Write a sequence for this structure.
């Protein structure tokens, strides 16, 4: 979620994954995928920067979590290689 400011000064959180487009008319209008529109006081470049920082923080957080998940999964798995192999089922095709 990113914080944006309405024209009247009220701050609210917006999910940038739901944004369809942002227009400058001259106010900044954010249109969501469901058609909801918000007029915000941030400029289009400021809004885009907020979205970039939000998405970069998600990627950074995920990359920090990945080594923890790998360590947790490797310690909880059995040492048997047979359990790690994928099971392959043969497909039977009908002849035409």
């Amino acid at each position: 979620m990113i914080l944006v400011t309405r024209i009247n000064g009220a701050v609210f959180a917006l999910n940038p994954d739901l944004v369809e487009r942002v227009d400058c008319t001259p106010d900044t209008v954010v249109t969501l995928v469901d058609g909801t529109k918000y007029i915000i006081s941030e400029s289009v470049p400021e809004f885009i920067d907020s979205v970039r920082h939000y998405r970069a923080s998600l990627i950074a957080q995920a990359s920090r979590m990945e080594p923890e998940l790998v360590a947790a999964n490797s310690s909880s798995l059995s040492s048997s290689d047979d359990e790690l192999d994928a099971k392959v089922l043969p497909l039977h095709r009908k002849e035409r």
Q: What stands out?
A: Residues 44-76 form the longest helix (33 residues).
